[in-house]
TrEMBL record:
Identification of the protein by name: phenylalanine--tRNA ligase
Pfam families, alphabetized: Phe_tRNA-synt_N, tRNA-synt_2d
GO cellular component: cytoplasm
Record keywords, A-Z: Aminoacyl-tRNA synthetase, ATP-binding, Cytoplasm, Ligase, Magnesium, Metal-binding, Nucleotide-binding, Protein biosynthesis
Catalysed reaction equations from the record: tRNA(Phe) + L-phenylalanine + ATP = L-phenylalanyl-tRNA(Phe) + AMP + diphosphate + H(+)
Domain Aminoacyl-transfer RNA synthetases class-II family profile: 114-320
InterPro entries in the record: aa-tRNA-synth_II (IPR006195), aa-tRNA-synth_II/BPL/LPL (IPR045864), Phe-tRNA-synth_IIc_asu (IPR004529), Phe-tRNA_ligase_II_N (IPR004188), Phenylalanyl-tRNA_Synthase (IPR002319), tRNA-bd_arm (IPR010978)
GO MF terms held by the record: ATP binding; metal ion binding; phenylalanine-tRNA ligase activity; tRNA binding
């Protein structure tokens, strides 16, 4: 168990750092510092879990205490957000002579990307399928060869709701579509939806969006997969000189699996998606022979397309930023 002095010291640091925040960006940095994936509390947890001298009971107790500290942080975090939202502008600082803006708002970059992807996918012969955000473990894990002891099924990585989960990927839609038996022979399915993971730091969000797509075709191969992805990315980024590379990867539901990087003008490469040939044991269960699948983070390709550098800007309710990166609904 953690020493009481240690717990009190962490609580005091949390209170002091949250109280000193002047804006939401500062608050997000504090959140990353304390409860992010590489934050202070997770560092404590890793440190004690690796201690072979501690019994399993002691490790459970420490895990419980760390979770209580996270709850303590979130309580003050939410209070600070409320304080920001309820902050009143002093009457003597309001200029009533300023004309009222007639702007009716802009479409968010993520909304623009979604619309564009729907258009591209439908032009490429895909049919849209949707699935629930609160998913059964069977569709999210079991049917995709994700074993019971896989790290993704740990409460540190996934949000559980009783016997269900907040889906960690839209690949669950693939299983629902195959299981439905609505489609025969060769077909193309895609989905765009919200997904959830316990990953909240300077480069990750706990809720983000994923584009899932798969093609069932007896002539499918890694070569046709690469050709399709290159075609899709050229259409999305509206460039003919897009360059990609495929690196060996691992996903329980595809084999072979690849991770796909795109090349920037400065010569650097950035991973933007995962893909591969759908495993035979998944396809044969529903009477299909061959196909490939891919998953793309909507936020990542949107940031590349619009030149956005901070992922947290996508969730801030900041009108000047939206005016810069969004698109007027009047257009």
């Amino acid at each position: 168990m953690l020493h009481e002095n240690e717990i009190n010291s962490i609580k005091q640091n949390i209170e002091e750092e949250i109280s000193s925040c002047k804006d939401m960006k500062g608050l997000i940095l504090v959140k990353s510092k304390f409860i992010g994936k590489e934050g202070i509390l997770n560092a404590y947890l890793k440190k004690y879990l690796k201690n072979s001298e501690l019994s399993n009971e002691n490790k459970k107790s420490i895990g419980f205490e760390i979770n209580q500290l996270k709850d303590f942080f979130n309580l003050f975090y939410r209070k600070k957000i409320s304080a920001f939202q309820n902050k009143q502008i002093p009457t003597d600082q309001i200029d009533y002579s300023i004309p009222v803006s007639s702007a009716i708002g802009n479409l968010h970059p993520l909304s623009l990307s979604k619309e564009y992807i729907h258009k591209i996918m439908q032009e490429m012969g895909f049919i849209y399928e949707d699935g629930p955000s609160i998913e059964k473990e069977y569709y999210n894990f079991d049917a995709l060869n994700i074993s019971k002891n896989h790290p993704a099924r740990n409460e540190k990585d996934t949000f559980f709701i009783n016997d269900d989960v907040l889906r960690t990927h839209t690949t669950a839609v693939q299983i629902r579509a195959l299981e439905s038996q609505k489609y025969v022979d060769e077909f193309r399915i895609y989905s765009i939806g919200d997904v959830y993971r316990r990953d909240d730091d300077s480069t990750h969000l706990p809720m983000f969006h994923q584009i899932e797509g798969f093609i069932i075709d007896n002539s499918a191969s890694i070569s046709t997969l690469k050709g399709f992805l290159l075609d899709f990315l050229k259409k999305f980024f509206e460039k003919d000189d897009v360059e990609i590379r495929l690196r060996p990867g691992y996903f329980p539901f595809t084999e072979p699996s690849v991770e796909v990087d795109v090349k920037f003008e400065n010569g650097k490469w950035l991973e933007i998606l995962g893909a591969g040939m759908i495993r035979k044991n998944i396809l044969s269960k529903y009477g299909y022979k061959k196909g490939f699948a891919f998953g793309i983070g909507l936020e990542r390709i949107t940031m590349i397309k619009f030149g956005i550098t901070n992922i947290h800007d996508l969730t801030d309710n900041h009108y000047p930023w939206l005016k810069q990166y969004g698109n007027s609904t009047e257009n």
